Amino acid sequence: MGQPPLETHPFAPFIRTLGRGQKGSRSLSQDEAFEAMGMILEGQVEPEQLGAFLMLIRVKEETPDEVAGFVRAVRWTIQLPENIPAVDLDWSSYAGKRRHLPWFLLSVLLLADQGVKVFMHGLKGRKDNRIYTPQALEFLGLPVSDSLAEAAQRLETHTFAYVNLERISPRLQQIIDLREILGLRSPVHTVSRMLNPFLAPHQMQGIFHPGYLAIHQGAAALLEQAHMAVIKGDGGEIEASPDSSCRVLSVNQQRCNEEEWPPLLATRELKPKSLELELLPQLWRGEIEHKYGTAAVINTLAVTLQMMQKQSRREDALAMATEWWQTRSKDLI
Question: What is the pTM of this model?
Fold first, then answer.
């Protein structure tokens, strides 16, 4: 008697769909992406399958439908605290900074100083030459919460909280860590940025590769995100570079918009020889002047204020951001 035919692994059809070649392959539907990511998160996928799946999507680039399906699946697995805080703004930080300091953190502090409840999530960091947000927060004396429950508790009495991805979804962190083995980023980087675990009505996104702007925008619309803006930020973080133009793609109640913001500064800023974190609190307290840093803070804040419907025109958003900067609580850090 011959050997019985081998059963096809349940995850194999997803790889087959993506990898049949130029004429036979296609992207996943949102429901297929949801099912595939669900199997990955539940450990129902072989390591070889996971690597093939991630790289097939990386080569063709993920679609808005795939990202939306992946995000929905991850959200389904996140253990939320019983008392979910009313967060105003979700802010992701997954890239790290190596050209300029993370000036965007001062933009976030301005929002928090004005009573906007901001939840931030991101990567703990890699062994490279970048400054990651947890490192900067520690330097500024701002706490990093150990869990979503701790962040929720903090947001009951404060206006800012941060949690590392590994505390939100350990499995996603494990997949991101495969970058050192695979040699490439994976779609999980996009998914992590869009998690918005507390479902804040406003969401800011930063990417490095311009081609991902429309992907983030489209996925946000599919996820019915009320208000979202995505920019090609400095280093891939949510920081609107003040010395170059900035494309802002946004979603406002299912309407997709695009606007080009001209640079605030007349000339390009040279990369500093070193990144000195002490400049952040010194600028905040008014102990030093820093033309680029101040412009980066104001520009990033203005994009956020426009996305949050605080102002509709760029000029008015910049004026409001400037006023917030000039009237900040200098003893906050």
Answer: 0.94
